[in-house]
Write a structure and sequence with these properties.
Structural class: alpha/beta
Oligomer: single chain
Number of domains: 2
Strand content: 25-35%
Number of strands: 11
Helix content: 10-25%
CATH class of the largest domain: Alpha Beta
Number of helices: 5
Mean pLDDT: 95
Bound molecules: flavin-adenine dinucleotide
Length: 230
């Protein structure tokens, strides 16, 4: 059973009505590495009797463990609404860190990190991690996202470590019939990489792995074909 831990909400910034940055101070050292996430327990009991526990990725560098940063996109569900209504000083129960969306060994490789939607947080956390440092000069971050959906280019640029090439391409909204085709068109034009990381919408990243990047490491945030929502 996962060990329950707590972090104090230390600082909040609402970038828009639907996007919030949270800085958390864990009660004990997290010992996380870039690309990992926490599972936050909102304490909300769902109609099926389960607790609404949701995963949120640490986007700040693992060089700093005592205060970590997350970005949350508010949706219609209970978890993101709970995250977006915390106040400074609140205690946030969680388990973790979890996850295997991690950098490889230190051998430099031409690396593509492709994220859709909120999956950008996994991309930023991975790239900011100390283990990814040897890859940065050879890395390209591509973010496929609806205009104005989440973080700004200025935020991503500031969070991104130097050396990484960054491009954002607009994608039709989640569920739009032309969304996958557009993602396939963009991803199909990206060649020459030794290593690929994919994060975000499972209805996009899984087909991209099957069709274009069979060895890619994947972090699926939603539309996960193998999972029910908790
Ligand atoms: C490993 C991992 C890391 C994650 N990291 C982050 C993060 O850093 N920031 C963040 O905001 N979210 C992140 N998520 C998503 C997050 O865990 C929740 O799924 C999300 O906040 C919705 O929870 P909810 O309770 O508000 O809505 P729910 O009731 O759980 O979901 C409502 C509906 O929205 C869909 N949905 C979930 N996420 C999205 C999305 N981004 N865009 C469109 N539809 C979506 C769900 O499939 C569902 O149909 C992560 C998910 C995983 C698995």
């Amino acid at each position: 059973m996962a060990v329950q831990k707590e972090a104090r909400v230390a600082h909040l910034v609402d970038l828009s009505g639907t996007t919030r940055i949270l800085e958390l101070e864990p009660a004990e050292p997290l010992d996380f590495v870039g690309g990992q996430y926490l599972i936050v327990n909102s304490g909300i009991v769902l109609p099926d009797g389960k607790l609404a526990k949701r995963a949120y990725t640490i986007l700040s560098s693992d060089a700093r463990q005592e205060r970590v940063v997350m970005a949350v996109r508010r949706l219609d569900g209970p978890g993101s609404a709970w995250m977006c209504t915390r106040t400074v000083g609140d205690q946030l129960p969680f388990s973790g860190p979890w996850g295997k969306f991690l950098a490889d060994d230190a051998t430099p490789r031409r690396t593509l990190v492709l994220a859709t939607d909120t999956g950008i947080t996994a991309a930023l956390g991975l790239i900011a991690g100390r283990a990814f440092e040897p890859q940065r000069a050879h890395a390209t971050l591509v973010w496929l996202v609806e205009d104005g959906y989440f973080l700004s280019d200025a935020f991503v640029g500031a969070a991104l470590c130097s050396g990484v090439t960054y491009r954002r391409h607009p994608l039709p909204r989640v569920g739009h019939p032309e969304r996958l085709g557009e993602a396939q068109r963009i991803a199909g034009s990206l060649g020459g990489f030794d290593r690929v990381f994919l994060a975000g919408d499972g209805a996009v990243v899984h087909p991209l792995r099957e069709q274009l990047f069979p060895a890619a490491r994947v972090e699926c945030y939603f539309n996960n074909p193998g999972k029910k929502s908790a």
